[in-house]
Design a protein that fits this description.
The structure is a single chain. This protein is mainly alpha-helical and 644 residues long. The protein contains 26 helices and five strands.
Length: 644
């Protein structure tokens, strides 16, 4: 094999390259505003008009006529709204001078009397400003008269030509019209060539990434289409209800306030507040009392809270994939880059960035920063709160998970992986003694709290049946097994002991007489197993650091109690039971289990087939020619108290 001459890029160099790339992209977004803003607006309008153009095309209207009709209908809608808004704004401008006296009266009532604290504060501020604005002693002449000096003269000129004058007067309007024309052309072109543009983007990504690119584009199109359509419907309904409410309150120009409420809600967070402030301020100016302004602002609060907590989460809140904080940050970021247009486009552009992060590994940080999915898995979150010594939040996580799933799912999917993380950190000396002790104690308390009230998700169907263990009803097999003895014991440390306690709890819920023993010396644990009259023992071992201790413990148990059935729980083995068998072998172990469900099933099977003292098989074992008197007595004592 020919060695490669390429050297791996150091992590620092890779991070520096990523930072440089981000700076270049942000600079390009800022400098390319004249082209990128119309292009982005055209892309949004294309997503909005594409369903209509597709429906018209299915009516055999043709690709180009369908796109033109969709564009014309959109322009007509914008034109009608613009004319209504413009006409009512002109009417308000003409009527404002008539409300000046009422507005001044409101301001005087707010300001209070001249002797009030607000007036005194205002007078003090004015006095300080006067002192600061007074000329210095050096600038004064004799007798306090300001010294004479040259007076600067400002020469203002007028545009030298008619074209310059028109450009100065109509410059902003011309720029707006130019942007509108570019957006119109881009939108029409995208509507006509939408499949061709899609294919070109897929081809640009390369043939080897056809699957990833196709999924990314489909995901982006689905999210954007749904988001834009739902937002358009929600904002239209919001504006209609707000305008109707303002009309019922009695505030003039209700159509204007309704249209502004619907349009401004496209701006995240600030838009709805501005839309509510405008009619409220107008009501303050025209009405003598405070009732109408208060009702207008109250209407905004009711509608906004209802919309934010009920309507939006139900319709599209869970489909954008953006967190609330990310929406706010994105709004600020795009507003700084592109101004007011950036505010409107911030959420759709953030959706596109999240889709890129989902399908491009180098951009997965975008999903972490902007996405609304939990960044920590339940087991990592549970373990992190234990590391922070926050037992209350860890308990809340456990209760919420058990309520949503069941107890068995919590043990398998949260508790075992979390304790495996703790075992790994303990092995590499990342856990101090105090933290480890807290984790063990808090976890035991959480298990004791949630176990009695939890739904375990299991039901009893018989001792010897196949499949996962099932708990719930009392059958004859369950009554018979209630008198049998099982012991769950740790292989190495307290973390193993926690899972042994969990197994014992689950066995008790199944109707068995089971108990767990705490960690101690090997001789102490063996003595306790012998004294309990144990028939089956389950040894709990967290992979991968307790395997050697577990194997040694199983050997000692087999030598001491030959008739004992031994189940080794080797939890969280990556390749399951087959890999667990390869690690420990079957010389001293009857069953190896990698999951709690598997361990409970195997224990139930062993309890059903293990003979009791007095049966023929037990008599033959105890009367064999090779067995010593001590072994016979021990075997008989183990099984005697474990059988009915």
């Amino acid at each position: 094999m020919v060695p490669s001459n390429r050297r791996p890029i150091p992590p620092n160099s890779s991070q520096l390259l990523t930072l440089i790339t981000i700076v270049i992209v942000v600079a390009g977004l800022y400098l390319g505003r004249p082209v990128l803003i119309p292009f982005s607006l055209a892309l949004i309008f294309t997503f909005l008009l594409a369903p209509l153009a597709t429906r018209l095309e299915r009516l055999r209207l043709g690709r180009v006529p369908s796109a033109l009709v969709a564009m014309v209908l959109g322009l007509v809608l914008l034109g009608v709204m613009g004319s209504v808004v413009t006409r009512q704004i002109v009417q308000i401008t003409r009527q404002l001078p008539h409300y000046q006296a009422n507005l001044e009266k409101k301001l005087r009532s707010i300001r209070g009397s001249r002797d009030g604290s607000l007036s005194k504060t205002t007078a003090m501020v004015k006095e300080i400003n006067t002192e600061l604005a007074a000329p210095s002693d050096e600038a004064k002449g004799q007798n306090g008269v300001p010294a004479a000096g040259p007076v600067p003269v400002r020469v203002t000129g007028s545009p030298s030509g008619a074209f310059e004058y028109l450009d100065t007067l109509l410059g902003p309007l011309v720029g707006l019209l130019r942007t509108a024309v570019i957006v119109f052309v881009f939108t029409l072109f995208m509507l006509i060539k939408r499949e061709d543009l899609r294919n070109r983007i897929i081809r640009l990504a390369g043939r080897r990434r056809l699957g990833v690119t196709t999924r990314a584009m489909d995901d982006a199109a689905r999210r954007l289409n749904r988001y834009l359509l739902m937002q358009f419907l929600v904002n239209s309904g919001y504006g209609l209800i707000f305008g109707l409410g303002v009309y019922l309150i009695g505030i003039p120009h209700a159509v204007l306030w309704g249209v502004l409420a619907g349009v401004l809600r496209f701006v995240p967070y600030l838009g709805a507040l501005v839309a509510a402030a405008l009619p409220t301020l107008f009501a303050l100016a025209i009405f003598p009392g405070w009732r109408q302004p208060a009702l207008a602002f109250g209407l905004y609060l009711v509608l906004d809270l209802t919309n934010a907590n009920l309507v939006e989460p139900w319709l599209y809140g869970a489909h954008t994939g953006i967190s609330s904080l990310a929406i706010l940050v994105a709004a600020v970021f795009w507003a700084m880059l592109w101004g007011p247009v950036g505010l409107i486009l911030s959420t759709p552009l953030s959706v596109c960035l999240i889709v890129l992060g989902r399908y491009i590994p180098q951009l997965d940080f975008l999903v972490i920063l902007l996405g609304d999915e939990p960044v920590l898995s339940p087991d990592a979150h549970f373990y992190q709160r234990l590391l922070a010594m926050d037992a209350k939040e860890a308990s809340d996580i456990a209760r919420a998970y058990v309520k949503e799933k069941d107890l068995m799912n919590f043990y398998e999917s949260v508790l075992l992986p979390a304790l495996s993380l703790a075992e790994r950190d303990r092995h590499i000396h990342l856990l101090d003694e105090d933290t480890e002790s807290f984790i063990c104690q808090a976890t035991k308390e959480i298990i004791e709290e949630i176990s009695p009230e939890a739904n375990d998700g299991l039901s009893l169907t018989g001792a010897a049946s196949e499949g996962p263990p099932q708990v719930g009803s009392a059958s004859s097999a369950g009554i018979r097994q209630a008198s049998l003895r099982l012991v769950c014991m740790p292989a190495r440390d307290d973390l193993d002991g926690i899972i042994a306690m969990v197994v014992a709890h689950l066995l008790q819920r199944m109707g068995y007489q089971a108990q767990s023993i705490d960690i101690g010396t090997v001789e102490e644990m063996l003595q306790r197993v012998s004294e309990q009259g144990t028939r089956v023992v389950c040894i709990s071992s967290l992979e991968p650091f307790a395997v050697g201790h577990a194997r040694s413990l199983c050997k000692r148990l087999r030598d001491r109690l030959p008739g004992l059935k031994i189940v080794l729980g080797l939890w969280n083995v990556e390749d399951g039971t087959s890999d667990a068998h390869e690690r420990v072998g079957n010389e001293y172990i009857d069953v190896v289990a990698a999951t709690l469900a598997e361990a409970l099933t195997q224990i139930r099977r062993l309890m059903a087939i293990t003979p009791c003292p007095g049966t023929a098989e037990s008599t033959r074992k105890n009367q064999g020619p090779t067995g010593s008197a001590i072994e016979k007595a021990e075997s008989h004592s183990v099984l005697r108290s474990a059988c009915p």
